[in-house]
Design a protein that fits this description.
The structure holds 2 protein chains of 2 kinds.
Chain A lengths: L3 E4 L2 E5 L4 E7 L6 E6 L5 E7 L5 E4 L2 E6 L4 E6 L8 E8 L6 E3 L3 E6 L1
Parallel strand pairs in A: 2-11
Antiparallel strand pairs in A: 1-3, 3-8, 4-5, 4-9, 6-7, 7-8, 9-10, 9-11
Chain B lengths: L4 E3 L2 E4 L5 E6 L6 E8 L3 E9 L2 E5 L6 E5 L5 E5 L8 E8 L8 E2 L3 E5 L1
Parallel strand pairs in B: 2-11
Antiparallel strand pairs in B: 1-3, 3-8, 4-5, 4-9, 5-6, 7-8, 9-10, 9-11
Classes of the chains: A mainly beta, B mainly beta.
């Protein structure tokens, strides 16, 4: 059974600081997704990583995928309050569209 | 381009009742997946439909069922509701299910009392 683990689960950081969220998964897969969820809202797609070594950046967020290590990272640069949300990574098993999600990382950016 | 539309947005049901939730995918998308989100269990996969066929199913009891119509719209049904079925039910739409991005609807918040 595929397991996806994120850490940390809770992250409180100051504006302007950098930090990394880690996503480890237990099976071979080269399809990993990052989503953002605001309280009471749905999931917003952030990044789609489809191959080993993939790196994508959007604004202050950068995601990478290492399929050999079964690890993805979401790096936050110079955090701002608007980034406060819960971030999920999800792995797509090879059998098709069946996302297994991590527990989520609740990020709070304080002024 | 319209996004994924889920109806209704909120529902309150009584234990033992049944409920049907609806999801209209993005135009042209043929894959529809359903997920349950609860504080205790997180986001869990329910099932996926592609071209009216169920292709994947998660570990949920048979009380949870779904279907997809020829226009790709999907419904999920939960029979004999239990308190533990209270959750946010999210539908995701994709053009195809492989290597394509899934877009989520706003969800249906189901409360069972």
């Amino acid at each position: 059974e595929l397991k996806v683990e994120q850490n940390p689960l809770f992250l409180s950081m100051q504006e302007g600081k950098n930090y990394t969220i880690y996503c480890n998964y237990s099976t071979t897969s080269d399809r990993l997704y990052w989503y953002r969820q605001d309280p009471g809202k749905s999931l917003e797609s952030l990044f789609v990583l489809l191959s080993n070594g993939a790196v994508k950046q959007e604004g202050r967020l950068m995601a990478s995928l290492d399929t050999k290590a079964r690890l993805s990272t979401l790096h936050i640069t110079a955090a701002v309050h608007d980034l406060s949300a819960t971030y999920f990574c999800a792995v797509d098993e090879a059998s098709g569209s069946r996302l297994t999600f991590g527990e989520g990382t609740q990020l709070t950016v304080n002024p | 381009k319209a996004g994924v539309t889920q109806t209704p947005r909120y529902l309150i049901k009584t234990r033992g009742q049944q409920v049907t939730l609806s999801c209209s995918p993005i135009s042209g998308h043929r894959s529809v997946s359903w997920y349950q989100q609860t504080p205790g269990q997180g986001l869990q996969f329910l099932f996926e439909y592609f071209s009216e066929t169920q292709r994947n199913k998660g570990n949920f009891p048979g009380r949870f069922s779904g279907r997809q119509f020829s226009n790709s719209r999907s419904e999920m049904n939960v029979s004999t509701l239990e308190l533990g079925d209270s959750a946010l039910y999210l539908c995701a739409s994709a053009w195809d299910s492989r290597n394509t991005e899934a877009f989520f609807g706003q969800g249906t918040r189901l409360t069972v009392v």
